Amino acid sequence: MNQRPIFAADDAVVVGASTGGVAALQTFVAGLPPNFPAAVLIVMHVGNHDSILPSLLARSARLPIRHARDGDVLEPGRILVAPPDFHLVVTRDRDNGRTGHVLLSRGARENHARPAIDPLFRSAAAAYGPRAIGVILTGMLDDGTAGLQAIKACGGKAIVQVPEEAQAPDMPESAIRNVAVDRVLPVADIGAALERMLDENLAAARGQPREVPEWVNLENRLMTETADVETLSQIGAPSTFTCPECHGTLWEIRGTTPTRFRCHTGHAFTERHLCAEQGEAVEASLWSAVRALSEKEKLLRQMADSAISAGYAETAGDYLAQAAAVQRDGEVLRRLLVSTEATEQPA
After folding, report:
1. Which of 98, 145, 250, 265 is the most buried (most CB within 10 A)?
2. Which residues span the membrane (predicted)?
3. Residue 131 DSSP one-character state
């Protein structure tokens, strides 16, 4: 049986989504026509859990769609989705740079996510330059902003979902605030806009050299290689913060908005993600303290029982008094944690 011929895409559309992303992506893929001329790559924050995202999107899409596999050729009119627990990045290093290929990486998490949006966007920026278009949809915090900046720095275009329409407007708002985006649109209108922009890209990019800023190349390298101090020093300076993932020193990346950090292991965070991670670490520590206090109380009461059995009533009284004090401390800490969680719930 003859294999279907493979044609490499000259253009790449990369899409990032997080909270509320399934519904937004279903609307997005439904708006892409059957003869769509670019390769489409999608990252949604799914972590390392099993994902049926391609089958969910296939119900709405008129284009073939599946999880990406390492080595896949980027073809026009085909949608590839980042598989769970792998960064999806692209390269055009083979065939003299004419053909785009998928590279799946178990590299360090970025913004506590793998797959993350920024690695895909940065790699597409370097590989496709002015023939890359980045699309940011609904999501919390600001993953994707730095990747969209890379696409713009390499001559590509940027589209962002209207924040008011997004279930979680943080990611679109961050992109609009920090990137010179080309379109801010309802998701249902993005497909038609992409077709027009691809035609514009073809004319604008004809004969245009692809210049990739050094910071984009360096950050792409950090996805597949262990960073050393010399590499990090080219793009940042040591900060006073430690990585919440590996506890190494974080380096603050120079000249970035929003502020971003990297460690030598490769973990990367915006300042908002770093703050969220530190908050989770504090909460985890406090709940551990609640557990430890509860166990200490039980142990003291057990020691009091043993003292009573041995005829040491005064010693038992001391143990019970200590147990009561520990119980009060634990209740105060628990109430503080519960009240804090309640105030942080979204309206």
Report:
1. 145
2. none
3. G
* DSSP code of residue 156: -
Strands (E), the chain: 12-17, 39-44, 65-67, 79-81, 87-91, 101-105, 132-136, 157-161, 183-185, 236-242, 249-253, 260-263, 268-270
How far is it, in rounded angstroms, from Cα 185 to Cα 108?
A: 32
Q: What is the pLDDT of residues 74-99, one digit of tens each?
A: 999 999 999 999 999 999 865 556 78
Amino acid at 183: R
> Residues with catalytic annotation?
18, 45, 143
DSSP per-residue codes, 249-318: EEEEETT-SS-EEEETTS-EEEHHHHHHHHHHHHHHHHHHHHHHHHHHHHHHHHHHHHHHHTT-HHHHHH
* DSSP strand pairing (87-91 vs 101-105): antiparallel
The structure's pTM equals: 0.83
Q: Pick from 92, 108, 110: which is nearest to 100 by CA?
A: 92
Burial 304-323 (b: 16+ CB within 10 A, else e): beebeeeeeeeebeebbebb
Sign of CA dihedral 13, 19, 23, 24: negative
- pLDDT tens digits for 36-77? 999 999 999 988 888 999 999 999 999 999 999 999 999 999
